[in-house]
């Protein structure tokens, strides 16, 4: 039976140093079937599949607030970042504090959104406020600036890498919440609400707000998710 071996060759990062080398990924049979990955019992992939957008949120959590806060912290803490810079930050709001956030959003949008369209906007915001809490995701710009100063060759890349790290942190939290039976969605009312939010919760000026994630109990089932054809998205070469 034909056996194929795999390797990746290129530049790799070790601490603050880069080196060129090869990582051997091992070998497997070329007759590997399309459903083989299911035999791996990949818990991470199972969690990722559970992550769905939930707009019908409730205030009843299946776990204690302290445990949910720890879950969020751990998810962000173990998210990768360029040069291990750990630039992601978060403010976690529960109960009335979360309600306060969505009231800020509502009152910020009230003079901006046309009067005839505001009831729809208000209903959407009230849906987020119906949840048990909200995670505010930030990226620390002082960390980004420090990296730019210390590694000028990559100065233009660090803001991009920071955003990528922030996106991974958001996804990690979302998947972790889903795996814990907690619904969530991802919203972006920044930068309109930045100043008032920073003032209300004494957020450092070097923290840049990137997203808001309302979460709570799942009050409606998820519809079946539709996917485009894999052939349109992926190219695999053996």
TrEMBL record:
Which InterPro entries does the record match to this protein? Frm2/Hbn1, Nitroreductase, Nitroreductase-like
**Alphabetical list of Pfam families matching this protein:** Nitroreductase
Q: Where located?
A: Cytoplasm
The Gene Ontology biological process terms listed for this entry are: cellular response to oxidative stress
Q: Which UniProt keywords apply?
A: Cytoplasm, Oxidoreductase
Q: Which GO terms describe its cellular component?
A: cytoplasm
Q: Where is the Nitroreductase domain?
A: 48-216
The GO terms describing molecular function are: oxidoreductase activity
Q: Which PANTHER family match?
A: FATTY ACID REPRESSION MUTANT PROTEIN 2-RELATED
This protein is called what?
A: Nitroreductase domain-containing protein
């Amino acid at each position: 039976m034909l056996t194929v071996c795999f390797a990746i060759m290129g530049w790799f990062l070790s601490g603050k140093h880069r080196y060129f080398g090869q990582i051997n990924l091992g070998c497997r049979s070329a007759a590997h079937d399309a459903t083989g990955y299911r035999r791996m019992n990949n818990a991470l992939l199972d969690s990722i599949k559970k992550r769905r957008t939930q707009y019908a949120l409730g205030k009843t959590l299946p776990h204690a607030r302290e445990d949910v806060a720890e879950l969020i912290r751990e998810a962000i803490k173990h998210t990768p970042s360029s040069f291990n810079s750990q630039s992601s930050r978060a403010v976690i709001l529960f109960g009335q504090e979360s309600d306060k956030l969505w009231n800020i959003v509502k009152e910020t949008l009230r003079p901006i959104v046309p009067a005839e369209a505001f009831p729809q906007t208000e209903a959407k915001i009230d849906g987020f406020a119906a949840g048990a809490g909200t995670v505010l995701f930030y990226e620390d710009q002082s960390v980004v600036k420090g990296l730019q100063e210390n590694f000028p060759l990559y100065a233009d890349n660090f803001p991009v890498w920071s955003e990528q790290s922030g996106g991974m942190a958001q996804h990690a939290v979302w998947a972790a919440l889903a795996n814990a039976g907690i619904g969530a969605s991802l919203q972006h009312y920044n930068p309109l609400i930045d100043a008032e939010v920073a003032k209300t919760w004494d957020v450092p000026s070097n923290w840049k707000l990137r997203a808001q994630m309302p979460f709570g109990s799942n009050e409606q089932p998820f519809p079946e998710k539709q996917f485009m054809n894999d052939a349109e998205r992926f190219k695999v070469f053996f």
